[in-house]
Amino acid sequence: MRARMFGLLLQAETALPAVETAEVGGNHHLIHLVFTADPLVQLCLLILLIFSVVCWAIIIAKHRQLKKAEGRSQRFYEMFWNAKKLEEITSKRGLRLGPAYNIFHVALQSLETHKNPGTKEAVIRDIRRAYEDEIEQVEYGVPFLATTASAAPFIGLFGTVWGILNAFWKIGQKGSSSLALVGPHIAEALIATAIGLAAAIPAVIFYNVYVGKIRRFSKDLEDFVEDLSDRITHEHFGARS
Question: pTM score, two decimals?
Answer without folding.
Answer: 0.75
